[in-house]
Specification:
single chain; mainly alpha
């Protein structure tokens, strides 16, 4: 491979290249691809959920607590070292091979230097993170960072080509291997090493699958104007990502020092279940960032994409949260054992905070797509600072429940995101998403506060603007099926009748 450094760069508004589908109806293409990814992610959700249950029961609180603490540190390091270069590729209106090659080289350099520094810093981290076998587990987990880095360019290429079905198949296969390897090793008493080895297996499969399907062959080429452009975007986006990711250190640092490894396991499993229940957030965010990068020239299409995506996210993330929150006090002891009961008490509190974050995530994506990454830093700083300060006080006062209460204190940072989005983009309509958030959040808290709060779910149906928004979400979800088209025809008849 030849090392090429050039001083020319195409305009970001240049004609889209071969990696951009030239379909007349982008929305229909996204819906079709998104459905494939959604189906695969649903299968992955079931596999990962089963895997989490079995592995957590087999390795116990201590083993799972050690894995959860180190995993959060490794994921924090990988997210920062990635320098948001994957977002740089996805949000760009056009990309050619030289841009892919430039990002590939930057990721290689970042992985080599960053991983070396992270491994060298393990002894220092050990003074702050109080979990068994930290040094050895951290060494193995940090060493997987280059593997995750090498996935990003082919994954971004597949996303730009809207090949969500291919991505979904690869992720389901990798999750299946995580389950098989993790459960087999845990059953023969590998302890904390069972999920560590399973994680390595999962990431290796993703690496091979993405490279095999993307059709990308790298060259060590880097054009300096592109390097500067990518680094400018990465500096702003990664700064925002860094300060937000500091919240991920609350569990391994604050909770472990105050309450010990058992509490780390409780919080870690709660966050794991949260990610499993809200898997659709990843789907819609990935799709939305690709689409927003292509419609940013039209203010109305851009605003509609953000609003529709936000409504979909709140609805489809919130409903599973409600179901799990209501059933958790029965399911958790049944599936995981009585030692994990506190997860059922922490989950509703964390779920409300997470739902607020989901509601603001596409507005953050909108700022990124419109080239305003620096505006995302202030809300992220606010989010992390509020969580750290609240956790230090509340975890010491209320134990594990204190972490859930601390999460609720971060919600004002989402409000700040909406304010900055309005200032940057223009006046927006937040009424319907706000109604949905408040009603769903109240229902999530029903098991912890009062079951009467479930009545709040009537608000999206009874309030007319919210009802129209609900119809729009249903129409979007069913638009590509014959049954959906017939249902939409009936829905249109109903809407005309309700107006009359």
């Amino acid at each position: 491979m030849n090392l090429v450094v050039s001083d020319t760069t195409p305009s970001e508004d240049s004609t889209p290249t071969a990696d951009t589908p030239q379909e007349p109806d982008l929305r229909a293409s996204v819906v079709r691809g998104g459905k494939k990814l959604l189906i695969r992610q649903t299968a992955g959700l079931i596999i990962s959920g089963v895997g989490s249950i079995v592995i957590a029961r087999l390795i116990g609180l201590t083993g799972y607590g050690s894995y959860a603490a180190v995993f959060e540190l490794a994921f924090f390091g990988q997210a920062i070292l990635e320098f948001s270069l994957d977002l740089f590729l996805v949000r760009r209106s056009s990309v050619d091979k030289e841009i892919y090659d430039t990002v590939f080289v930057l990721l290689l350099v970042s992985a080599a230097l960053g991983t070396s520094g992270a491994i060298a810093g393990i002894p220092l981290l050990g003074h702050f993170v109080h979990v068994p076998q930290f040094h050895h587990v951290a060494l193995c987990m940090f060493a997987s960072i280059p593997v995750m880095h090498l996935q990003q360019v082919p994954l971004s290429k597949l996303e730009r080509e809207l090949k969500y079905g291919v991505i979904g198949k690869a992720e389901v296969a990798a999750q299946m291997m995580f389950l098989i390897v993790g459960v087999c090793l845990a059953s023969i008493h590998f302890g904390v090493w069972a999920p560590v080895i399973a994680w390595w297996t999962q990431q290796t499969i993703l690496l091979v699958a993405f490279w095999a399907k993307a059709g990308y062959r790298p060259a060590l080429g880097a054009r300096m104007p592109l390097v500067r452009e990518a680094m400018r975007f990465g500096a702003a986006s990664t700064s925002a990502n860094f300060v937000y990711s500091l919240r991920n250190l609350v569990n391994p640092v604050v909770v472990s020092r105050i309450l010990g490894v058992r509490a780390v396991a409780i919080v870690g499993l709660t966050l794991n279940l949260m990610d499993q229940a809200s898997f659709i957030k990843t789907v819609t965010f990935r799709i939305a960032l690709t689409v927003l990068g292509r419609v940013q020239g039209s203010a109305s299409r851009f605003a509609n994409a953000v609003r529709e995506g936000t409504m979909i996210q709140i609805f489809v993330v919130g409903i599973p949260f409600i179901g799990f929150s209501c059933a958790a006090r029965i399911l958790i002891p049944l599936l995981f054992g009585s030692k994990w009961t506190e997860v059922a008490h922490v989950f509703p509190l964390v779920a409300v905070s997470y739902l607020a974050y989901v509601g603001g995530s596409l507005y953050t994506a909108g700022l990124l797509a419109r080239g305003n990454p620096w505006l995302t830093i202030v809300p992220n700083i606010m989010n992390s600072v509020l969580l750290w300060l609240a956790a230090v006080v509340l975890v010491r006062r209320f134990g594990v429940i204190g972490y859930g209460l601390a999460e609720l204190f971060t919600i004002p940072s989402v409000v700040l995101t909406l304010v900055l989005y309005t200032i940057s983009i223009g006046r927006q309509h937040f009424l319907v998403p706000s109604i949905w958030f408040v009603s769903i959040a109240a229902a999530i808290l029903a098991p912890a506060v009062s079951w009467w709060l479930l009545l709040a779910l009537m608000a999206p149906i009874c309030i007319r603007p919210s009802r129209r928004g609900l119809f729009a979400v249903i129409e979007l979800g069913m638009a590509e099926t014959a049954i959906g088209r017939r249902a939409n025809e009936r829905l249109q008849v109903y809407r005309r009748g309700s107006k009359s």
